[in-house]
Design brief:
By secondary structure, this protein is mainly β. The chain is built from three helices and 17 strands. The strands form four sheets. Strands 1-5-2-3-4-7-6 form a seven-stranded mixed barrel. A six-stranded antiparallel sheet has the order 10-9-14-15-16-13.
Length: 239
C-alpha cells in the first residue's frame, strides 16, 4: 500500500471559463471531438495559479497531485478550478503520493443528478505512449481559452516492461501551471497520459528539458484503486 493523502477533505472552489452553452464542442473531425478542448480546466491553489485538469466524467476532475505536496494546512486550503465562468464547491477525493503516481481526483460537491460536464466521459487509451507518437495536450492560456498543443512521445525517457518499450515523457516544453493536463493520442482521441513535472536533462552545451507524464497504466491503476468512475469502462480499444 502506498501513502496517500487520506482523510483530507479540502474545500474546493471551482471557477469555470470558456464560451459556449453545450458541453460538447462540435467538430468536423470525430477525433477532434474526442479530445474536446472544452474538457480542460485550470486549477488555482490558495489564490495562485497551480495547474490544469480535465473532466473525467459529469462531476469529477482528474489532475496532478504535486500541487498539494507543500500545502501547510490541507484542511483549509482553497482550490479553484476555472471553467466556463461558473463556481462550484468541490472536495479532493484522493491524491496519490506524487513520487509514486502524480495524480488526484476532485469531486464537485452537490453534483449528484445535476451533472456539470455534459460531454462524454474521458476515454482512456489501452496502449502506452510510444516514442515519436503524435499527441495533443489539453491546456488553457492565461485568458482561460482552451487550446490543444501538439507534441510527441519523447525518445529520451523510455522504459521497458514485459519486453515492450514505452515513453514516460513528451517533447513539448510546458510552462508552470500546465501540470495535470491530459495528453491525448492524436490518432484515437483517447487519453494516453497526464502531464507531471518538467525535468531538466544534463547537457554540456545547453539546458535541455523533458516533460514527464503519468503513464496511462499507472493512471488507470490509481483510478481503479480509489474508485473513480469505473475507468476501465472508459478505456478505448486499440485498432
Amino acid at each position: 500500500m502506498h501513502a496517500r493523502y487520506n482523510g483530507v477533505f479540502l474545500n474546493v472552489v471551482a471557477f469555470l471559463a470558456v464560451a459556449g452553452a453545450s458541453g460538447v464542442v462540435q467538430a468536423s473531425d470525430p477525433t477532434e471531438a474526442a479530445f474536446n478542448p472544452d474538457r480542460t480546466v485550470a486549477i488555482r491553489v490558495d489564490g495562485e495559479p497551480a495547474g490544469t485538469g480535465s473532466w473525467l466524467d459529469a462531476n469529477t476532475v482528474v489532475t496532478a497531485s504535486h500541487f498539494f505536496l507543500n500545502v501547510r494546512d490541507r484542511e483549509h486550503v482553497q482550490v479553484e478550478v476555472v471553467w466556463r465562468g461558473e463556481r462550484y464547491q468541490a472536495t479532493l477525493r484522493n491524491a496519490e503520493n506524487p513520487a509514486y503516481i502524480d495524480a488526484s481526483v476532485l469531486d464537485i460537491d452537490g453534483g449528484g443528478t445535476n451533472p456539470v460536464w455534459r460531454g462524454a466521459p474521458l476515454a482512456l487509451c489501452e496502449d502506452a505512449l510510444q516514442a515519436g507518437q503524435p499527441v495533443r495536450v489539453g491546456l488553457r492560456n492565461e485568458q482561460g481559452i482552451a487550446t490543444l498543443l501538439r507534441s510527441y512521445g519523447s525518445p529520451d525517457e523510455m522504459v521497458m516492461y514485459q519486453d515492450r518499450a514505452s515513453s514516460t515523457a513528451i517533447t513539448a516544453f510546458l510552462k508552470p501551471g500546465d501540470s495535470g493536463a491530459s495528453v491525448y493520442d492524436e490518432a484515437k482521441g483517447c487519453m494516453v497520459g497526464l502531464v507531471s513535472l518538467r525535468q531538466k536533462v544534463a547537457d554540456d552545451w545547453a539546458e535541455v528539458y523533458t516533460t514527464k507524464v503519468v503513464s496511462i497504466s499507472n493512471l488507470i491503476k490509481f483510478l481503479n484503486e480509489e474508485g473513480s468512475s469505473n475507468p476501465r469502462d472508459n478505456k478505448r480499444q486499440s485498432n
